């Protein structure tokens, strides 16, 4: 990963890092000064686990964290007070706590937190009086402080979605332009470069899905951003179609490599259509970022759809044409058009002639 990519990722993660830092300090102060706990380390730990530098499911993480800590501390306190501390005692406490967690819920955080909490109780923090209850309270305080930080110190949900969606839009546009250039110059190596760049898009897709989940969560939790929930609808409609468009672009690039290596004849209008789709992709990105209905992007995609030529060009070329048509449908769906209407926007393909079917004579 290059330096500018690392810096870009740091900028994306800056809001949750700031939330973690502020909320961890406040959780420690609340548990120590208001609740009177001498070593409330579970409180800041709960904040970090709740907010994290990852995205999404923070509400669920709070519940899993508190349940996991409570289970691990409860089992640990109960067993260690009976059987003492030692190697085999640790093995028994951890196994029992994690087994109970698995039976209660399939969430990985509950299981891991139950096991780690049991280890702490069995080694560093032997049970004493109300220690178990205090630790559960610390975890709850940390979880609540983490949610408060998300609610009161939030990133803009729409801005968060846009930042992560931009990678998908840019990757798709670059792939389409790269394939167009490869066709224009009859160089399969350029198509191979476009394919290689597009292969890394799945990371962008997963990050975008997580960012959408987090954006919805912020808009739900934070009273400051509830009115922005409607601005997320465009991204929610575009998420799956964009994923499909990127997959189709990868197939298109692979077929372009085959076609160019085999010197297959390709439709002369194909590079122009690809460049026009790349421009429409970026227009869709900008309209969604501005919170506008993507009407201009839809019109641009429909214009490309209307120019799809007919005729038969050979197997590789026909596959490429089919992939371009699929990408057009995907992008129209990303603008909010239903699939039936998107498919209807394409001119019908000519049926293969008997000569094509028979392979010629």
UniProtKB/TrEMBL annotation:
GO CC annotations on file: membrane
UniProt keywords, alphabetically: Membrane, Transmembrane, Transmembrane helix
Pfam families: FUSC_2 (PF13515)
Domain Integral membrane bound transporter: 26-148
Subcellular location: Membrane
Spans through the membrane: 12-31, 37-55, 62-80, 86-104, 139-160
Membrane topology: Multi-pass membrane protein
Superkingdom of origin organism: Bacteria
Keyword Transmembrane listed: yes
Official protein name in the record: Aromatic acid exporter family protein
Protein's organism: Nonomuraea turkmeniaca
């Amino acid at each position: 990963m290059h330096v500018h990519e690392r810096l870009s990722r740091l900028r994306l993660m800056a809001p949750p890092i700031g939330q973690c830092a502020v909320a961890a300090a406040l959780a420690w102060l609340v548990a120590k000064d208001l609740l009177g706990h001498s070593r409330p380390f579970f409180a800041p730990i709960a904040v970090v686990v709740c907010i994290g530098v990852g995205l999404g499911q923070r509400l669920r993480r709070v519940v899993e964290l508190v349940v996991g800590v409570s289970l691990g501390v409860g089992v640990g306190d109960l067993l260690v007070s009976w059987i003492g501390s030692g190697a085999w005692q640790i093995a028994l406490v951890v196994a029992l706590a994690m087994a109970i967690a698995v039976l209660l819920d399939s969430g990985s955080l509950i299981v891991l937190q139950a096991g780690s909490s049991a280890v702490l109780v069995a080694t560093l923090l032997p049970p004493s009086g109300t220690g178990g209850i205090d630790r559960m309270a610390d975890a709850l305080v940390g979880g609540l402080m983490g949610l408060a930080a998300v609610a009161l110190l939030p990133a803009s949900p729409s801005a968060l979605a846009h930042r992560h969606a931009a990678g998908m839009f840019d990757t798709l546009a670059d792939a389409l332009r790269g394939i167009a250039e490869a066709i224009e110059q009859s160089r399969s190596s350029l198509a191979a470069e476009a394919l290689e760049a597009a292969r890394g898009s799945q990371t962008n897709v997963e990050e975008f899905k997580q960012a959408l989940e987090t954006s919805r969560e912020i808009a739900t939790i934070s009273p400051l951003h509830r009115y922005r929930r409607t601005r997320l609808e465009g991204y929610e409609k575009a998420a799956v179609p964009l994923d499909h468009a990127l997959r189709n672009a990868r197939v298109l690039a692979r077929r372009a490599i085959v076609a160019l290596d085999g010197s297959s004849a390709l439709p002369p209008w194909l590079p122009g259509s690809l460049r026009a789709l790349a421009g429409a992709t970026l227009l869709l990105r900008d309209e969604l970022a501005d919170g506008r209905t993507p009407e201009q992007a839809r019109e641009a995609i429909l214009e490309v759809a209307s120019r799809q030529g007919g005729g038969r060009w050979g197997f590789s070329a026909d596959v490429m044409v089919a992939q371009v048509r699929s990408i057009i449908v995907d992008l129209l769906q990303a603008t909010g058009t239903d699939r039936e209407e998107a498919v209807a926007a394409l001119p019908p393909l000519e049926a293969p002639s008997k000569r094509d079917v028979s392979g010629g004579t």
